[in-house]
Amino acid sequence: MAYSFLHRLRGALPKRLRPPLTYIFHGLRDVIGFLTGNRGTGLPPYRLMVGGKRTNEEFRKTGDEFFRYMRDICGLLPHERVLDIGCGTGQKMFPLLEYLNDEGGYDGFDLDPRRIKWLTTHVTRSNSNFRFQVCDVYNGHYNPGGRLPPGNYRFPYRDCSFDLVICMSVFTHMLPADVRRYFSEIRRVLQPGGRCLLSFFLLDEESRGLMLEGKSDLVFKFEIDGCSTTDRRVPETAVAFDESAVSSFYKGNGLSIQKPVFYGSWSGRRNFLSYQDLIVAVKE
C-alpha cells in the first residue's frame, strides 16, 4: 500500500531529508486509518497506536518482543495474572491472548480513555479475563488535565492480586515522588514471590559518558528534584534517574533486583537488550 511504500522510502533517506516525508507518511496513514479503522487486522486503528506513529508490523514486533521478556526472563506461566501499568492500546497484551489460559488473566490501565474504550469493546467482550480501566492521573506531558495526583494514586486492585507487573515507558515520564508511590503500589498488588518488569532511563558512568560524546538519543541536561530531564519546562517529557536512586526505590519496597540489569540502546551502548533499560525484581 502507499503508506507502506512511503515508510520504506523514508527509512532509506538520509536523516536530514526525512522530516518532510514523515509528515506525508503519517498524514496519509492516519487518513486511511480513520476511514478504515484498521479493520480486518484485529489491531487498534492507527490513530490509537503509540503516538499515532506505528505500523501494524511495528506494533506486533514490539508486542512480541515484550512477550518474550515476560515469558523467558520473568518466567510468566499461562495460569498467572498480569498487570500492565500504562497499557496504551494493549501492545504488550495481544500475544497474551494466545498464551494465558482461563486461570490466568490480564489487567491494564492507562490515561487515554479512547484506547481503553477500544480495548474494552474489542477485547474484553470476547475475553472476560482481560480487563481495562482508565486512570485520570495528572502527567505534565501526557495528561496535563488529569484530576488525580500521581503521588496519591491507589491502583484499583486488591492486595496480592498479580503474579507479574509490567511497566514500560512510564517511569521515564514521572518524577521521583510519584515513582515512589507507584513502587509502593506495585509491592501492594504483587503476590509474595511475584515479579515486576520495569523500564527506565538509567544514568551511570557509561551512559553519562556516552551522552557527553554525543552518542545518545537523549541528553538529560537538567537536574531537578532528584532526577534529570530533557525539558526543564515540562520535566515529564523524558526523565532519567541515577541507577543508585532506582536501586533505593526497590530496596525501600522489599523488591529484590534480579541481576543482570538489561541496559538499553537509548544511551548509545553497543550491547543492549531493548531501547530502554529494563530491571526485573521479585517481591520478597
Name some characteristics of this structure.
8 helices; 34% helix; alpha/beta; Rossmann fold; 4-stranded mixed beta sheet; 2 domains
CATH-defined architecture of the largest domain: 3-Layer(aba) Sandwich
Question: What is the radius of gyration?
Answer: 19 Å
Number of helices: 8
What is the name of the CATH class of the largest domain?
Alpha Beta
Looking at CATH, the homologous superfamily of the largest domain is Vaccinia Virus protein VP39
Order of helices and strands: HHHEHEHEEHEEHEEEHEE
Structural class: alpha/beta
- What about the largest sheet? 7 strands, mixed
Shape: globular
Q: How many independent structural domains?
A: 2
Largest sheet, order of strands side by side? 3-2-1-4-5-11-10
Distance between the first and last residues' Cα: 51 Å
**Counted beta strands:** 11
